[in-house]
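Sample entry (210 residues):
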Amino acid sequence: MKYYPFLRVSTKQQDTDRQLADLTTYATGRGWQLEAPIAETISGGKKNIARPGIQAVLTVARRGDVVLATEISRIGRDTAQVLLFLEELADRGVSVFVLNLNLTTLRSDGTRDAMAWAMLSVGAVFGQLERAGIRERVKSGVDHARTQGRIGGRRAGDVKTDEKFLTDHADVVKALGKQLTVREVMAVTGKSSGTVQKVRKLLATPLVGL
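Predicted structure, serialized as tokens:
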């Protein structure tokens, strides 16, 4: 079994040091020996066929191997392409581990983890929405409405996006995936009822592209 860290940034002004450091820390804590990182500097919206990093993974990964990424958005920001990549690896018996959600596509016996796939699909959708500039358009609309006196509320930037909220409360997501009650999730995670209820509501909201 080999462990391949997958790293991606969009521009040459960015670097992958933090991604590799986070993955290395996690792997070291579990006694995993990482292979040489597979890194690329490219937009996450490109097709897989045009992604040298994606193609490198598909070339070297074998059954039983694990590909690690810090976030699903590092794999890509095109939902269809991300899921196609995960599917192709799963068909080969290669698992993908996403650090910030602590989710793995395949169980130890090689079968698919349905909850992990659902959450990673949601994450991929949010990644695509972010790339399309949905956040900025929503913020612009809210700001305009405030200037017209139609709505009040917190200052711009205070409200978390749904993506960041789910990421920040990944422990709640995982607990809900085990079919625990709200009270049980609160006890396990130490989170408030409102937080658990909001996560559950977000997970139940249909998203285009799933």
